[in-house]
Fe(2+) transporter FeoB (Hephaestia caeni), 621 residues
Amino acid sequence: MTPAPLVALVGNPNSGKSALFNALTGARQKVGNYPGVTVERHAGRMALDDGRPVELLDLPGAYSLEPSSPDERVTRDVITGAQAGERLPDAIIVVVDAANLDNHLRFALQLIALGLPVVVALNMIDLATRDGLTLDPEALARELGVPVVPTVAVRRRGIDDLKQALAGVIGHGTAVRLAAGDGSVTDDIVALQRRARAIALAGTISETPVRRWTHAIDAIALHPVAGLILLTAILFLMFQAVFTWAVVPADAIDAGFADLGNAVRATMPDGVLRSLIADGVIAGVGAVVVFLPQILILFFFILLLEASGYMVRAAFLMDRIMAAVGLSGRAFIPLLSSFACAVPGIMATRSIEDEKDRLTTILIAPLMTCSARLPVYTLIIGTFIPNNPVFGFVRLQGLVMFSLYMMGIVGAFFAALVLRRTVTKGASSGFMMEMPKYQWPRARDVLIGLYQRAWIFLRRAGTIILFSTIILWALLSFPKPPAGSDISEVNYSVAGRIANTITPAFEPIGFNRDITLALIPAMAAREVAVAAIGTVYAIDDPDAPAGQESMIENLRKRWTLPTALAFLMWFVFAPQCISTIAITRRETNGWKWPAFMVGYLFVLAYIASGATYWIASAIGL
Ligand SMILES: Nc1nc2c(ncn2[C@@H]2O[C@H](COP(=O)(O)OP(=O)(O)OP(=O)(O)O)[C@@H](O)[C@H]2O)c(=O)[nH]1
Ligand SMILES: [Mg+2]
């Protein structure tokens, strides 16, 4: 006796597979309104209208054929015939959510391409109608090249039609597939998404304005060329704004700290305590806090992009590029978080299944420009780069800032490419995600996000930065040179002597003593570099008025442009952050990988700074 034909229900999570299974077989499989209800296969029996028995399989939902979790693997193995002890299904019912066609058709296209006889169940038609969406199942069938049956699983509507369509395809092999669908499917997720979207559009008779808008925006936002141009333009605008909008509030904060410093100098008697407060605490912490407006503007943009639904689109656009350098698409979100700080970014890599994928992402996360670098970049750019307009509307300072961010990204991709061919060799996995609807960001959410960021930043200023500044101040202030000595106070101090000892190692890449002085305490946190420079100049030049103005004057006097550029390059690449090293140790369970990370990043930083210095000097900057 030949066994009854085997039919499998496949589709995205939460599309209604188990509900359909119950409707078709009369069984009572658990259904629930969240993804991941079914986590293993279930079999049941049903009869077609002509009395033929069929064995029906309910499978766990999946987003794609590249499994990212064990239950998705079950699904993939069953429908490709790779599952031990299971025969290849004679047909599959692809269940799609009619109200979410763009997302669900992506997987449907992959499934149809497998070549098994397919019937598509256009489920949850009731919800689509409620959302003001009218679909054309025949048009969808034409585009997909397989029968499409509208169903409402929970009301048992469309079940008979589904059985009939199934009877039509079972036993007819692939020949029954209509001619129109070419069945070819690509690994390129952006292309796949575009095709799914085009088919969804062709099958849509009418829809609400929100849905129409989403389609219209995505036609540009997800376009492989126009989308990338749009993304670049948005990022660009962001960095222009960081510079232009911050001027007024930053000046106000700076004036506040300057007044405070001057007041302390005017009222307190000259001595160690006055120097500690004015040169250490106020000059150091003030030098960092000035950058609060810029950090908030940056995060304002990031929060808007996240809340509007654009960020996921950016992830889609980047997926192709990420795959090209051997990164998993899932790495996008951790890498994106690393723009705030590498520590949460590295923690977010836990969502990456594959160990090698994950390790690669951890190793390159510090190359994403974290917000602690912003004060360093802004100070140096503001001091050394003139704010000339280029191409009429773009300003040079914003352009340089944008390039520094891009350099981090390009450096990370380059590093991934090399790592993937050497220390973390292996295949990388794909990426599927639901595409959210566009919506206006809610003011409340954005405000809460900004408040949290401000708090994190100020807390750092009040703890790590304050603490390292005080230590540095002490090391810079003692011992005091004997009266009448012509050695400067800084050079005579412990810190000055340490810096003078190691400066020769950095001279080949253009660094001066001030920089080496700043680099060591900056291991605690990158912003400390700015605090350190503030403290050094406050001690070195005690008669100058407090505030950023005199710090900038000192920088211009003591640094050359090639040195300043080399210093910027150092901060693009160098692993100047103890917290990142610590979290890498924790997430990789040992010292091997953090040691490797620190090593390769220092080498990279040294080479990049040196090259910048020499090239800049050679062309006479
Ligand atoms: N309104 C409506 N709700 C439906 C329909 N089909 C399923 N549902 C509901 O959608 C939710 C998900 O259904 P399930 O059958 O559990 O979905 P599933 O595809 O098996 O999900 P996983 O097992 O997680 O992959 C449940 O709350 C169902 O009651 C439908 O046609 N219309
Ligand atoms: Mg289920």
Observations:
- The longest strand covers residues 91-97.
- The chain has 27 helices and ten strands.
- The chain has two domains: 6-207, 228-618.
